[in-house]
Amino acid sequence: MPAVCKRPGRRVRARFVASLALAWMAVAWMAVAxxxxxDDTTGPVKADLxxxxxxxxxxxxxxxxxxxxxxxxxxxxxxxxAPSTVTIQVGQGVTWVWIAGFHSVVSDSSPQAWTDSAGQxxxxxxxxxxxxxxxxxxxxxxxxxxxxxxVVVQ
Length: 154
Ligand SMILES: [Cu+2]
Known about the structure:
Layout: H1 10-38, H2 57-60, E1 69-73, E2 81-82, E3 85-88, E4 94-98, E5 106-107, E6 124-127, E7 134-140, E8 144-153
Parallel strand pairs: 1-4, 3-8
Antiparallel strand pairs: 1-2, 4-6, 5-7, 7-8
């Protein structure tokens, strides 16, 4: 007598569908967990000391920069201002050019030599003119005093 091909009962089918869904969720969870390992953007940003700062000659030759002083922000992916001390003459200005990372430019002078830049990951911040000779320290509002620089106005 040939075997009767009976469709599985409703309860068996429901159990099969439930186990499929469970297996799919397990795979999806593992994929998310694995993906999360390589992309930890929630922790503190660490400076990669193995990567030397890269001076971007294209930035230095940017004709749209009209200030005498140019500082590269996050050059080489590090938490640095390069050069860390920029020297200009009275009446000249400074342009900070974002190379990499999320940073800001906060004056440490009292009163502040400029209003804080926004925290940003690209673009520029310009202080068009420093009218008074002196030394103007500043830091990154995102990374604090581990990322500092100075504008020297002669
Ligand atoms: Cu920073």
